[in-house]
Amino acid sequence: MRERSGRYSGEMCFACGINNPIGLKLKFREEEDTYITNFTAGTEHQSYDGIVHGGIISTLLDEVMTGYIYAKGYNAVTARLDVRFRKPTPIGEPLKITGKMIGQRGNMIELSGTIELADGTITAQGKATVAVLEELEQ
Question: What is the mean pLDDT of the chain?
């Protein structure tokens, strides 16, 4: 599993960059065939009072899905991202964000993702099509 820093994701990445002062600073791990990160949104991430902004939700899902392909050793970009907002995601509560590969056709990889609360309630789901541009140097 490749670390998410350096040439392609960068230390200033909004989602995972360790040096971005306003970034989310996400850290990832792989468990079996699933890529996982955890995040607790603060008031600076809200839209309506107490609710995580939809753009942050979309960012979390995009990052866990496309980032998984990068972690597998490929330079990849999101070609398509679909987000289904099932319930408002509350700020201040720990979130588990997961992504997994569900298919591949040529250099296009399909992934699915979820955001869930500690009690297992899914607040958002995503599907992404990711284009693999090249294999990264080891």
Answer: 91
